[in-house]
Write a structure and sequence with these properties.
The protein is an all-alpha fold. It is built from 4 helices and no strands.
């Protein structure tokens, strides 16, 4: 989770650097899940944010990332 898209991309870059250095694996950025009030509330209530409020930004981001995973047809690792 990130405060915004730019922070999400920065976190990804740092993670990608470590992964490439120690595992020699390349990663692809598919987006981030913004930390919004609905996500916090759903987490505290132990509920899925995509059911708590399907239209909130975090739920939309989760669905977008899940759709990208589906489009790979299970071929994430190469």
């Amino acid at each position: 989770m990130a405060k915004n898209a730019e922070e999400g991309r920065q976190l990804f870059r740092r993670f990608e650097d470590v992964v490439q250095r120690f595992l020699d694996v390349s990663l692809e950025y598919w987006g981030c899940v913004p930390l919004d009030p609905v996500l916090r509330m759903a987490n505290q209530m132990q509920r899925l944010v995509v059911r708590q409020d399907p239209q909130c930004e975090s739920a939309k981001s989760i669905r977008d990332i899940a759709a990208q995973i589906e489009r790979t047809n299970g071929k994430i690792l190469s």
